[in-house]
Amino acid sequence: MESSTSIEVAKHLLLTFGIILAVGTACGILSQKLKMPDVVVFLVVGMLIGPGAAGWVDIKADSALNQLILIFGSSYILFDGGATLRLKVLKEVWITIVILATVGVLITAAITGVAAHYILGLPVIVALLLAATIASTDPATLVPVFRQVKIRDRVAQTVMSESAFNDAVGAIVTFAVLGIAMGHGEFSLSAAVVDLAKEAGFGLIAGGALGYLAALLIAHEKFGFLAEYAPVVSLMAVIGAYLGADGLEASGFMAVFVFGIALGNKEVFGFEMDEGEQEKLEEYVLTTALIMRMFIFIVLGTQVDFALVGKYLAGGVAVVAIFMFVARPVTVFLCALPDRRARWQLKEMLFMCWTRETGVIPGALAGLLLGMGAPEAKLIASVTFIAILMTILIQATTTRWLAGKLGLLEQT
Questions:
Q1: pLDDT, tens digit, 9 for 90 and up, residues 110-122
Q2: What architecture (CATH level 2) is domain 74-406?
Q3: Which of 25, 125, 155, 168 could make a disulfide contact with 251, Cβ separation 3.0–4.6 Å?
Q4: How high is the pLDDT of residue 222?
Q5: What is the C-alpha to C-alpha distance for residues 277 and 110, in angstroms, rounded to an integer?
C-alpha cells in the first residue's frame, strides 16, 4: 500500500512538472511575441493555473519541493547572472554597488517603514519588519530581465550586482527587527555589522574558490580534463557553492553569484576554453536558467492568496507605491551621487530608480515569518505579494520602453 501511495505521489509530481514545462514553453513564446520579459508572463499565468483559479498546480509554500525550487532555481539564475558580468566594468562602479547593497537597504526600509506605520496603522517595530522584508531587490527577476533587454553594461551590471549582494543585508535586518518585535532581544549595530561581514566574506571566499577550481578543471591547458563535462561541473559547483557557504553560515546566494563571476571571467586567470566547448556550456546554462525561471515564477504565481491580498489591498498598494516612487529614488540618489568615480549620469540614475523588482527573496522571507508566527505575519505576507505583483507587472514590463526613452539600450 505504501509503495502504491509513493507511486501515485510520484505520478502527481511528474504531471505537475509536465504542466509547468508545457505552460512555461507557451509563455516563453508569448513573451517573445509581446516583447516583454518572460518572468512577467510566467507570474500572471501561474496565478491563473494555481489553486485560486484553475487549480492545475498546487505546490504548498512550506513544502520541501517548493523550497528546493526556490533555492536551486534562484542559485542557478544567480550563477547565470554572475557569469555575464565583467570585472573591468565592476571596477568602475563597485563603490555604488556596496553602498546600495548595504546603506541602500536601510534607507529603503526606513522610508517604507514610516509609510507602513501611518498608512496601515502598524506599530513602528512591525512596520519596520514589513519594510525590511521587502527592502532587498530580487536577482531572480532582474537577471532574466537584463538577459532579454540589453541595457548599457555598467547600469545593468550595477543593478544585477546590487540585487545579488543585498539579500544578505535584507535577511539580517529582517531577523534583527523580528527579534525585537517578538521580544527576543535588542538590535545591536555592531553584531549586525559583524554578521554581515561574516556572511559576505565567507560567501566571497566560497564562491571565488569554487569558481577558480571549476575554471581550472574545464579550461586549463594542462589540467582541464573535465572540459567535455563543463555543464555538469557548473551544475555541481552551483550546488557546492550554495551549500558550502550555507554551512559556513554565509550567504549562499552571494557565493553562487561570485562563482558565476569567477567562471565567467576565467580569462583573467589565464584560462581559455575550446570554442566548441564554450558554446556548448553557454547553451546549457541558457536552457537550464530558462527552465528555472519557468518553475520559480509559475510556482510563485500559483501561491498568491487572493483572499489575503484582497483584504489588505488598498493600504498595501499605497505602501508599495511609496516604496516604488519615493523610497527607491531617494535610495539611488543618496547612494550613487557620492560615487564620484562612477560619474553617474542623471538618466542612468533615473533608470536605476525604476529597476528594483521584488520577488523570490522577499517572498521567502515572508513565508518564514508566517511559519514563525511573527506579529502581523499575514498582513506582511499580503503586502509582500502586492509588492511582487506591482513591481514585476509594472516595472519589468516597462524596462525596455524606459531604457529606450533614456537612450540606454545597447545596439544589437
A1: 999 999 999 999 9
A2: Up-down Bundle (1.20)
A3: 168
A4: 76
A5: 48
Q: What is the pLDDT of residues 133-143, one digit of tens each?
A: 999 887 778 88
Q: What is the CA radius of gyration of the chain?
A: 21
**Phi, psi of 311, deg, nearest 5:** -60, -40
Place of cell 500559483: 302
Note whether 357 and 140 are within 8 A (CB).
no
CB 321 within 8 A of CB 67: no
Alpha carbon distance 299, 388 (integer Å): 13
On the question of pLDDT at 203 being above 80, the answer is: yes
pLDDT of amino acid 192: 67
DSSP codes joined into one string, 278-310: HHHHHHHHHHHHHHHHHHHHHHHHHT--HHHHH
Residue whose C-alpha is closest to residue 125's, from 116, 135, 137: 116
Grid cell locating 52: 485560486
- What pTM was computed for the model? 0.82
Please report which confidence band the pLDDT of residue 186 belongs to, taking 50, 70 and 90 as the band edges.
low
Domain locations along the chain: 74-406
Q: How far apart are the C-alpha atoms of 164 and 80, rounded to whole Å?
A: 12
Give the count of alpha carbons within 13 A of 155, CB side only: 27
pLDDT averaged over every residue in the chain? 86
Q: What is the mean pLDDT of residues 83-103?
A: 86
Cell numbers given for 25 = 514553453
**CA 112/CA 26 separation, integer angstroms:** 37
CA distance 79 to 147: 13
Closest CA to 74 of 364, 345, 283: 364
Count H helices and E strands in the chain, helices first. 19, 0
User: CA-CA distance, 13 to 143, in Å (whole number)?
Assistant: 28
C-alpha cell at 210: 569554487
Helix ranges (H only) for 121-227 are: 124-134, 139-148, 153-181, 189-219
Candidates 190, 100, 94; CA nearest to 136 is 100
Q: Does the structure show a pLDDT above 60 at 187? A: no
Q: Which residues touch 157 (CB under 8 Å, ≥6 apart)?
A: 85, 86, 89, 90, 93
